[in-house]
Amino acid sequence: MDERLRLLILGAHPDDAEYHAGGLASIYRELGHEVKMVSMTNGQAGHHERPPDELARIRREEAAAAGRVIGAVYETWDVPDGELMPTLEMRHRVIREIRTFRPDLVLTHRPCDYHPDHRAAGQLVQDATYLVTVPNVLRDVPALFRDPVVATMADLFTKPAPMAADVVLDVTDRLDTIVAMLACQRSQVFEWLPYEEGILETVPDGETEKLAWLRGWYTKHILPRANHFRRDLIAAFGEERGRQVELVEVFELSDYAASADAATRERLFPGAHCRGPGK
Fold it and tell me: Domain residue spans in the chain?
């Protein structure tokens, strides 16, 4: 029996997968499991200078390079950035992707998020999960007998409901790998995002200096994640470690997909602390 697991990350944009779940993805690859990361849009809107067609090409190449850091496939779809919608056509595309890759675990965004592409990605996955098991839906692609476990990646939004920290993963020892993946997304982490934040002039010229800068930038940006879920971290790791840990990935298990008992959670999230005996 093949014990390898299959992880599918369906993000809205190139860089969403590694920013929110690069630590878990790297653990999967180190353990010999399969990982596929998908950007459901082409990322063509995310720049202040580069034109859309050029940027879409660049971001496809950058995403593929990020995947190669851990030996994962990183696929970029052709949907224009900012225009992802939960249409029937896109639902069918998600169903095909899940049926074809046959993942044990799917990660995506929550359907409540600041970005319309993130919301659409989460809704599309939610709408597709049960239908992947229905043979008369898209008869040309064999249906799965069971839908995969689905979890959403961390966000800090509280309306209509705050995210439940069903799984918490300390990624402190994954920082260098996550930064190496993000560094491949050069048009974003060294250009567009610093421009948006008004700190473009702080990005250094040298490659070594850029990596050090990115390490600090990423650490600063995900620290609020640990602070937001601090009580969950204390419950998971104990008082001392729970108050100290700063770099975490957090996941909420979907009620709309396959349930996961305690043993399944431990298997699907190696190295993480999983809350509760089951759903």
Answer: 6-174+250-274
Q: Which CATH number fits domain 6-174+250-274: 1.10.560.10, 3.40.50.10320, 3.30.1330.10, 3.30.428.10?
A: 3.40.50.10320
pLDDT for res 33: 98
Q: Whole-angstrom Cα distance, residue 125 to residue 94?
A: 7
Nearest 10 degrees: Cα torsion 111, 115, 116, 121: -50
pLDDT tens digits, one per residue of 119-137 = 999 999 999 999 999 999 9
Q: Closest by alpha carbon to 232, among 164, 181, 183, 179? A: 164
Question: What's the pTM?
Answer: 0.96
The 10s digit of each residue's pLDDT in 33-85 is 999 999 999 999 999 999 999 999 999 999 999 999 999 999 999 999 999 99
- 3-class secondary structure per residue, the chain: CCCCCEEEEEECCCCHHHHHHHHHHHHHHHCCCEEEEEECCCCCCCCCCCCHHHHHHHHHHHHHHHHHHHCCEEEECCCCCCCCCCCHHHHHHHHHHHHHHCCCEEEECCCCCCCHHHHHHHHHHHHHHCHHHCCCCCCCCCCCCCCCEEEEECCCCCCCCCCCCCEEEECHHHHHHHHHHHHCCHHHHHHHHHHHHCCHHHCCCCHHHHHHHHHHHHHHHHHHHHHHCHHHHHHHHCHHHHHHCCCEEEEEECCCCCCCCHHHHHHHCCCCEECCCCC
- Using alpha carbons, select from 29, 18, 14 the residue that is nearest to residue 63: 14
